[in-house]
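Worked example (supplementary).
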Amino acid sequence: MNAAAGFGDDLQPALQVTGLTVEFTLGRAVVRAVAGASFSVQRGETVALVGESGSGKTLSALAAMGLVDPPGRVSGAVRIDGQAVLGLREDEWRTLRGRKVAMVFQDPMTSLNPAHRIGRQVAEAIRVHDAGVSRRDARDRAFALLERVGIAPAAARARDYPHQLSGGQRQRVMIAMAIANQPDVLIADEPTTALDVTTQAQVLDLLRDLQREMGLALLLITHDFGVVAGIADRVVVMYAGRVVEEGPVDAIFASAAHPYTRALLASVPTVGAARGGLRAIVGAPPNPGEIVAGCAFAPRCPLAEDRCVAQVPELRPVAEHQRAACVLADQIAAGRLSP
Amino acid sequence: MSMRVGDESGRARAESNDAGLAPTATVRSPRGGEWRRALRSFRRHTVAMIGLGFLVFIFLACFVGVHFAPSPTEQALLEPTHGPSWDHWFGTDEISRDELSRVLHGGQVTLKLAVGVAILTTVIGVLIGAVAGFYRGWVDELLMRFTDLWIALPALPFLAVAVSIGTVSLGPLGSLDLGGPLGMTLLLSLLLWGSIARVVRGATLSLREREFVDAARAIGSTNRRIIWRHVLPNCLGPIIVNATLVIAEAILVESTLSFLGFGIQPPTPTWGNLLTNSISNIEDTWWLVVFPGAVIFLTVLAVNFVGDGLRDAFDPRRQVRA
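After joint prediction of all chains, the assembly is encoded as:
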């Protein structure tokens, strides 16, 4: 099981997802949005979960929070600090959320309640898990949290309503709420996508600082390789509900072994390459309801062979700590084949 | 009759409120919360302010001014029934009692009833609507069919039967006169909570999908806390507007019922009761119809003006122009 952890195999990961499947039944069709994804995050480690829209990144995260609502069905295994959490009762989940695993959502514009002052919302995050804490203590701790995430002077800003804050400030408030109960695992679902570029960098810096300070296991969901390069230790690439490649961030950038990872990296616009225009990946990802025989990326893959559609490729090691689910992975990683 | 909150009006209200829920956050928003913004908008609503002023006047008159008016029971036996005069502003009734005093005393009963009905319907409606909208599924189905049942209940036969039963025993709690003010408050509340339940359910259905509800779940909030802290504060606007409109509805319904003899039973004076006997003598004693009628009409109008003002105040789409 621990082989999924990549490196540090002897340690128990803070978050371990094994063979995670999330299915929806729509009429007669069963839509498999996540199809057996496995990945893990160690304490003090930042893992970037990368993939395009619909690849199952967010659903995997929600499943790890126990937040997939019916009709969604979750199977596989999720362990938080070694505790198997799938199938927990809702009240058991509630004691974990916020305390063991917390989440920062994509859009800070809508993730804060417009009806309450931000200080009260942060204080509520504290009081949810500690009924015994007095209002005053909760407020003081909320102030400290707000200061910590860079909302200062906290005592004054705590009286603001969400609409009075900028996007970056709101995301800081969301982060303050997420870390209020010292979780072990922090999941950040595209925390900077809704922000402008300068603010993105600041929020990422804050996340990285907090991660180091608190020894968080940080799972960062993103589709932005700039973000990945700046903050991640390891990268997990998802495509059509499966993990297609994982490895240390340097290895992924230097010698990605899966054609999809290569294509993703190639489609990142760079300043120097303006003349060539944007490189997009030809085609579209399969619909979640569609059953694709073999490798889900084969229809879009320039290197696809007959054996690619024969069966789903397993994740295989291609280098130390790096694994890819492609029959040609070794050749691609070695540079003998280039998609 | 305005008594039955029809399907259409309930649904239309629910929709308009659904759409009006999302307070668009703009950088231009002034400091201060949703409430201060709504208050500012309300104060600019001239008609609503006039309505509010009139309501304050009516409440003061009924609950304070009444002590300065002549007695409602004392009969000026020496004087024949006569129209408005300096001594009796609204004239005297068929047994020479001061009509103004009777209107003010009737107002106490009617207004208390209306406010009581508004509070009770809001409590019942919010509870049932929020639970149905939040939990959806079979809970929603069950509660909403139960709501439909009460909305579809033919009000007049129901009340006629209830009032004819008269006093019921509540065991250790004493007894309750269904034809008295308290009994009528309860009966009308039972008949009128449906629309609020529907509005709150609609609002809850849309609010529960908002991201801040997910965010609240992600920090481990209980469902009860989410409903109480995150859902209800965001639909207070529609709730308040509806409660206001229920006040108007309750006044009208009570008047209608009393007029028909199904309402609060005489000798308790209510605005409706005052009209009951006088209408047949409208040619001789017009003031006994015109004054109570005008008071009912103006009060209901004022409540509706206030309701409109509140609805506009809580509607973010109207803020843009302001």
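Two points are worth noting when inspecting this output. Strands of chain B lie at 167-169, 175-177. The two ends of chain B are 37 Å apart (CA to CA).
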